[in-house]
FHA domain-containing protein
Amino acid sequence: MRTELQFSPVLGYIGSFAPKSFTFEQPTTIELDGHIPGLNEPDPSPQNTVFPSRSLAYEQASIAFDGTTFVLTPEDELAENICVNGYLLQDQAHVLQDGDVLQFGSYMRKEHRFKTDCAAKVSFRLSPGASPTGTNWAGIRQLVSDLQREQAQAQQGHQSAGRKTPFKIASSQNLTQSPGQIQIPPKASKDGFSDGSFAAVLRELRHTSAFLCSKFDAMLGPVPASESASTPSVVNILPLY
């Protein structure tokens, strides 16, 4: 889980600055620094942790992120330049809470008051990190969709294969090139066969049988020598009279 640490100026205090936002994904430590115009650089900007505070330029502080919490700690044990929610931090570490108000300045001992250079309000925002490496949810959804479509096509093809192929009524006397599909000659009329004679039908059947036998021979290959003497490779067709 990524965490954004944000600093925004507080109304009613001097030392305005542009809001700052920093993203943390793993334990790290950042340093809070101050700026004195004309004496040190860089100037405060949304991209750095520099604030318009003279006292913070002399005595810095740090914020450590351990993966779950942010801890604010002065770098100088004797520093008295930070107040948290109106209380002087001194040399104590403070676990930042959402809504904390940090004042950077100087504690006036004789006057028992804190002179503020600038004030910043702390806020957190949790944001989900990137998806785990190798996980492509859009790709996974597409894969599931493809699998479902392939299963539907396979099931449909299985159902089609399970149905018997109907015989096709021939419109001519050309035979199909597949032995699994046989064309049936036209039915005879009341006065006789459509081709005019019974012999023509027998000739057609003989031609078909020879054609099928040649196809079977091509599929089965040469006949072994042990079988050639007893098993003919071509079916003999009786002559027609």
Notes: The first strand starts at residue 2 and ends at 9.
